[in-house]
Amino acid sequence: MYSENVTLKNEAGLHARPASLFVKEASKYSSEIKVVKDGKEYNAKSIMGILSMGAGMGDSIKIEAVGEDSEEAVKGLVELVNNKFGE
Amino acid sequence: MKGIGVSPGISIGKVFLKKEVNIDIKRKDIDNVEVEIDRLDENIDKSIKEIEYLYEYTLKEFGQKEAEIFNAHRLMLEDPEFIGRIKNNIKEEKINSEWAVKKATDEYVKILESLDNEYLKERVADVKDISTRLLKNLLGIKGVELSSLEDEYIIVSDDLTPSDTAQMRKDKVLGFVTEFGGRTSHTSIMARTLELPAIVGVKDITKKVRNEDIIIMDGNEGLVILNPSEEEIEKYKEKKNSYEKFKKDLNKLKGEKSISKDEIKVEIAANIGTPKDIDKVLEHDGEGVGLYRSEFLYMDRDKLPTEEEQFEAYRVVAEKLDGKPLVIRTLDVGGDKDLPYLNLPEEMNPFLGYRAIRLCLDRTDIFKIQLRAILKSSAYGNVKIMFPMISNIDELRKAKDILEEVKSELRSENIKFNEDIEVGIMVEIPSTAIQSDIFAKEVDFFSIGTNDLIQYTLAVDRGNQDISYLYSQYHPAVLRLIKMTIENGHKEGIWVGMCGEAAGDEKLIPILLGMGLDEFSMSASSMLMARWIIKNTSKVEMEEKVEKILTLGSPQEVEKYIDEKITSKI
Q1: What pTM was computed for the model?
Q2: How much is the ipTM here?
Q3: Residues of A with catalytic roles
Q4: Domain locations in chain A?
């Protein structure tokens, strides 16, 4: 398992477009990927899951993955968040 | 009937009542799970194909931003959790796909509705939209689509989904009236994009109108008139014509300079509260931001924003303005704007109490973080700092000393910022207006905050309905203070702006031009109107009128004079 913590810095947080981009990126990897916020786990490949997490700007989330490409997956997603979803 | 006007404009026309086809879902037991799951998969594919079509169509007709929502819809229909839940329902309970879809949808709707976030709550509409699409396909229902409108209609509905608006024939729609929704719901956003009038939150409207009824809708006022009289129709036709002609004229002003008839150039800028407001400012061709209300970054949260968060919120705006001025007002809380996490003491007279710069000079820990963030953002655009609620020259000097301390901290950390950043103050307290000759020697600009200046000059609480008749921007005493402030600023060679409501007041703009105001900062949607007024006014002519106005006694006399001698002439 590989995991990293990251803080959402874009204004919209994980809503709408960023949520779509996040799920699309996660779906590229074969690993099982989870996002943990406030102790609750959400499936990173599920748009409904990511939306219902309700993560906004300034919120801190943990991304963890299990599988062959787990490190790559987490790093890819962290980069996406840090780049503010290319805004 | 009243609702919330979310997109301006007036329409008179026939009603097309778009009621959701009643989809009757019944629970049925099934024998063959595999067959049922195949049937589900087939209809998911079919729904995804429809969404792909809508995406392409919307992309072509409206653009990327509007099409984006269908990307999200597609992801929802491909969502492993959502689809997994539906399939689990089928497998474990041996029930039909329709019931399984309904069950899973209800669960997600409940979760999203429970979130404490208006934007996410409205995504419920999207979940319902894709669920309805899938159910219709499963049941083989073809609903009345807005794509088949033959005549022009005002669409009345509970709420409109992205699928509705995407298929709608734009040339046949006169406006939207809905029972539900808010300013950021899909209906509202789409209406503004299409520049169609829209009113949301009209209670029971779908029960009160029938197809083909004639209604009048005024998106400016949020007003719906059912079965109007001939006179009302005539009145609104006229209103509509003049509104549309004016709107056309205004749009032509985009890209032009704000120059008076006698060639005096002024700056028309916007007031904003959050970074996303800047898009609207640019869309309406704003020449800058005259007031960035930084307190919004501190509100609706449970702790102070970090330096990094603030820096981001300032930098984004500075960059988007691309060299145009950005005046950031430092934290202005207290008074009517409380921050619960600061545990501010309760006061007898909060507007005369511990607020704005008074709080910042006491809580220098908070103040310094903000100044650091503002200074850092000054490396990315034309950023200026403005202190609110200055009543005494010592406050200004103290604030500037702290700013210098922060500057030297940044220097020692090798952090880039604009060394010559302009520093100004809000002139919103009578003592400061009266002493503006003294203040002008120690700042780079003034911005007159009329909302508070009126309240403090006239001793009228601006929130108290019982005495609201006394609150007036036309009070000659207020106008004298404004003129004095502008003149004193100019004597010292600094620019003077205004960021209160009065700066966007159609009646006062000519007067302020006559007084020599350099910058007018207002809500973004008023800017083109202000430019139009400036272009149709001569400063020299107004100078005379200003002299006359200042000899008048009451606010009513001033307003009457402006109505008769100025507004009607432009």
Answers
A1: 0.62
A2: 0.89
A3: 15
A4: 2-86
| Residue B194 pLDDT exceeds 80 | no
Nearest CA to B343 out of B311, B371, B303 is that of B303
* Structural domain A2-86, CATH architecture: 2-Layer Sandwich (3.30)
| More confident site: B266 or B144 | B266
Per-position DSSP letters for A4-50, written without gaps between them:
EEEE--STTTTSHHHHHHHHHHHHTSSSEEEEEETTEEEETT-HHHH
Query: Which CATH architecture describes the domain B252-569?
Result: Alpha-Beta Barrel (3.20)
Q: Of B186, B284, B360, B475, which one is the catalytic site residue?
A: B186
Identify the residue with better confidence: B417 or B119.
B417
For chain B, the domains span: 1-19+146-231, 22-139, 252-569
User: How would you list the strands of the sheet with B223-226, edge to edge?
Assistant: B4-7, B198-200, B173-178, B153-157, B10-18, B214-218, B223-226
Q: Which residues pair with residue B178 across a beta bridge?
A: B157
Mutation test of the interface with chain A: which of B81, B88, B106, choosing the one with the most A Cβ atoms within 10 A? B81
Grade residue B21 by pLDDT with cuts at 50, 70 and 90: low
Q: Higher confidence at residue B338 or residue B516? A: B516
Please say whether the structural domain B22-139 has been given the CATH code 1.10.274.10: yes
Residues in chain B: 570
Question: Is residue B505 classed exposed, middle or buried when 0-12, 13-18 and 19+ CB atoms within 10 A define those classes?
Answer: buried
- Under DSSP, the state recorded for B214 is E
Mean pLDDT, residues A59-67 taken together: 93
Residue B144 has pLDDT above 60, yes or no: no
Supply the CATH classification number for the domain B1-19+146-231. 3.50.30.10
* pLDDT > 70? residue B324: yes
Q: Measure CB to CB from residue B81 to each of A11, A16, A46 and give the nearest one.
A: A46
